[in-house]
Design brief:
With about 90 residues, the chain is mostly helical. About 80% of the residues lie in helices and about 0% in strands. The protein has one domain: Chorismate mutase (Chorismate Mutase Domain, subunit A). The protein binds the ligand C=C(O[C@@H]1C=C(C(=O)O)C=C[C@H]1O)C(=O)O. It holds the Pfam family CM_2.
């Protein structure tokens, strides 16, 4: 059996194409998360509450840090800022 190795340049180019596609999906999911978060925030504000709910944000931060460690916390903080603005 003959095995033809992929040239490093080709492997890198193809892998970068995959990364760009993954990034597009992540961006789409973030936009979807922002829309869902806005629905919750608007409903809470319309019923006399506040935009921000700190105990829920702590749950979100724990979820991300449990999965990804300290950088997961940083990622979650950025996500929260995208979803509810700066506090
Ligand atoms: C979406 C909510 O409102 C705000 C936005 C959050 C989020 O985007 O995860 C979390 C808590 C709130 O500050 C919520 O309370 O669940």
């Amino acid at each position: 059996m003959t095995t033809i190795a992929t040239a490093p340049e080709q492997l890198i180019a193809e892998s970068r194409t995959r990364i760009d596609a993954i990034d597009d999906r992540i961006i789409g999911l973030i936009q979807e998360r922002m829309a869902v978060s806005t629905v919750i925030q608007d409903a809470r504000i319309a019923s006399g509450g506040r935009r921000v709910h700190l105990s829920r944000e702590m749950e979100v931060l724990s979820h991300w840090s449990d999965a990804l460690g300290k950088p997961g916390t940083a990622l979650a903080m950025t996500l929260l800022e995208l979803c509810r603005g700066r506090v």
